[in-house]
Amino acid sequence: MPRTESKQQLGVRGEDLACAELERQGMQVLERNWRCRLGEIDIVAADAGANGLTLVFCEVKCRSGLGFGHPLEAITYAKMRTLRQLAAVWMREHRMTASSIRLDAIGVVLAPGQEPSLTHVKAVG
Amino acid sequence: MASACAWSVALVGLEGRVVEVEADIGAGLPRTVLVGLPDSALYQARDRCKAAVSNSGQEWPISLLTVNLSPATLPKAGSHYDAAIVAAVLAAQGVFRAEELRRTVLLGEVGLDGRLRPVRGILPATLAAQQAGFTRVIVPLRQAGEAKLVEGIEVFGIASITQLVAFLQGIPMPPVDPIEVIGERVGGHPSRHLDLADVVGQVEAKWACEVAAAGRHHMLFHGPPGVGKTMLAERVPGLLPDLNVRDALEVSAVHSLAGFNLADELITRPPYSDPHHSASVASIVGGGQRMAKPGAISCAHKGVLFLDEAPEFQPTVLEALRTPLESGMITLGRSELHARYPARFQLILAANPCPCGQAATPGGLCQCSPMVVRRYAEKISGPIRDRIDINQAFLPLRKAYLKATLQRVESSAVVAERVLEARDRQRRRLAGSGWLTNGEVAGTYLRRYLPLPDDLQTVDEAVDRGRLSARGVDKVLRLAWTAADLAGRDKPGRDELAIALAMRRGEQPGTICRGVG
Predict the structure, then answer these.
(1) Is residue B92 within 8 Å of residue B25, measured between CB atoms?
(2) pTM here?
(3) Are residues B26 and B81 in the same domain?
(4) Do B29 and A80 touch (CB under 8 A)?
(5) A83, B185, B327, B418: which is deepest, by most CB within 10 A?
(6) What is the pLDDT of residues B472-486, one digit of tens each?
(7) Domains in chain A: how many in total?
(8) Do the Cβ atoms of B63 and A121 come within 8 Å?
(9) What range does the domain containing B138 cover?
(10) Does A54 map to a domain?
């Protein structure tokens, strides 16, 4: 079966959509695919609300169908725990402070021939 | 985001408590949390319900789903909450209107393919729902008949989740393929057609059975092997009249809880239970780790419990019968709850006089030493013996006797008719006292409110000689009343007292009855 898109390409497309969604909600994307020894943060965004600056660390999971379950179901407790540690490392490296931080998860379903469907769950970890 | 609730029933003993099943779909990573003290069968409902809903063409919420069973402090066990959990989750998702679940109790376990499976205790649960003011109950299709035995509540039999959804949406239910069920007991009581006429000889023992059946008295049969002890005991339930509606409901509820599928009818015949002598205490009185299930004595409620080869039972098993024999119920304490079951059974014990079975039998050659014979007899302890009304000895038949008695044998139907008449007399006499039979009447009532027999001299003598205890006097009076009822007299006289005394003391040769009184 000819593949139209590799796993990596699919992931990038999903992350593009996730960024667009965050920006639509009024957040500013600070960084994408930041890596260190511990792992990778998909998206770091800043959410300037009434209570000051909130740093949003976002895990994006993208799938091309629901045959293996919804993408959000693949975001496990272990992944969110790693993301929490990564958030701390990122803030230290960038000498950033914020009044609060938030861990979000975004599941993207990119089924061929269908409109992409995006589920954004805030403050999961 | 969204929440909804459905209703189910938790059974503690025979008493049901209504349980509210709440489902809340909240923000969070997809996860299903089940709270409210579930046991492991119930905790696994999470995975069962999820698969069942997905396989029924519905969606399981892709977010944090919290299912709570309230009151949260009441321990809950079993798989019958599945139906309510599924309904609450689907209602929370807006598959049908949540108001549809008001005043409705749901019972049933779901299969992974989405069908609704039968569960234990449908009858008592439906009864509890009706008493709590619910107007309808949804049960597995094959148990609708059982639930319909309860009046004053609408019953709907549902075969699968697909049907449940259609039903609650108010659209016609799709038909289902009939499912063959293998390995399930249906109407656990094969009607026995055992006739008293099958038993040869043993006229006195048959008379004792008649008296016992009429007044619900406990009996001890003793005699050598092969004289018909078991045969007669099996025929006692056939002499008993049908259960009245209240008793039938209670007996059926216990059996439903014990796991018998009642099919579509109440148990109207007195039940019969004859556990093997290897039985454990828990199997006899009821038990289980967290939820205590009814045992043999509760399954024999309003019927007959027959313990064949009584001395072979573990002593602890026999002693466990003491309190239920007096109180007519059993309260089983477990770490998290107390379950109470009715256990007003009529006890029949059968025993050989010694291990070889020949002791004190005319013409029998017993090879047991006196000590062995005594030990064997002692296995039925004094307190248990004291609770026995009728001590009936069985003697081996002689050939001539056999011939003579073959001619006039009464069938069970004839005897049952006399028993029914005697029961009627008792019911009329005891009207308003709360008792129905002589065997159950309290001693104080017996002596204070009922006329004493005229000629109490024989009883006085027996007491003076130390052959009759205080409890023994009451037992003799009860037996005398039953004998009078059978004879159609208004009051026991000298004859009835003599019969009663002889039955109580078991005035027959045989070591096993020595020291009774």
Answers:
(1) yes
(2) 0.74
(3) yes
(4) yes
(5) A83
(6) 888 899 999 999 999
(7) 1
(8) yes
(9) 2-169
(10) yes
Q: Report if residue B185 sits inside a domain.
A: no
Contact B27 A122 (CB under 8 A): yes
* C-alpha triplet B88, A66, A118: angle, nearest 5°: 85
Last residue of a domain, one of B152, B169, B186: B169
Q: Smallest CA–CA separation between B63 and chain A, in Å?
A: 8
Question: Does the pLDDT of residue B272 top 60, yes or no?
Answer: yes
Set of chain B residues whose Cβ sits within 8 Å of the Cβ of A83: none
Of chain B residues 7-36, which have a CB less than 8 A from chain A?
27-30
Q: Can you tell me the ipTM of this complex?
A: 0.73
**With a CB-CB cutoff of 8 Å, which residues 48-77 of chain B face chain A?**
62-63
B315 close contact with A: CB closer than 8 A: no
CATH of residue A88: 3.40.1350.10
Cα nearest neighbour of B27 on chain A: A121
Strands A40-49 and A28-35 come out as: antiparallel
Whether residues B246 and B104 fall in one domain: no
CATH number of B376's domain: 3.40.50.300
- Selecting from B27, B28, B62 the residue whose C-beta is nearest the C-beta of A70 gives B62
Domain range enclosing A78 = 7-121
> What phi, psi does B264 have (nearest 5°)?
-115, 10
User: Comparing C-alpha atoms, which of A78, A72, A87, A82 is closest to residue A122?
Assistant: A72
Distance CA(B222)–CA(B308), nearest Å, equals: 10
pLDDT one-digit tens code per residue, B171-229: 887 776 655 555 444 444 444 578 888 887 788 888 899 999 999 999 999 888 888 89
Contact B27 A123 (CB under 8 A): yes
Closest CA to B9 of B104, B116, B92: B104
Whether the pLDDT of residue B125 is over 70: the answer is: yes
Q: Which residues of A touch B29 (CB under 8 A)?
A: 72-73, 75, 80, 105, 121, 124
Whether B29 sits inside 8 A of A121 (CB atoms) is: yes
Claim to verify: residue B399 and residue B333 sit in the same structural domain: yes
A65 contacts A20 by C-beta, under 8 angstroms: no
Question: Above 60 in pLDDT, residue B249?
Answer: yes
Q: What is the mean pLDDT of chain B?
A: 86
The 10s digit of each residue's pLDDT in B421-447 is 999 999 998 888 888 899 888 888 888
Sign for the CA dihedral angle at B55, B56, B61, B67 comes to negative
**pLDDT for the residue numbered B512:** 37
pLDDT class for A2, splitting at 50, 70, 90? low
Tally of structural domains, chain B: 2
Do the domain assignments include residue A91?
yes
Q: Per the domain annotation, does A2 fall within a domain? A: no
Indicate the angle between helix axes B412-429 and B470-487, nearest 10 degrees.
Answer: 110
Which residues of A touch chain B, with CB atoms under 8 Å apart? 70, 72-73, 75, 80, 105, 107, 119, 121-124
Say yes or no: B157 and B283 in one domain: no
B27·A119 Cβ contact <8 A: no
**Does residue B44 register a pLDDT over 70?**
yes
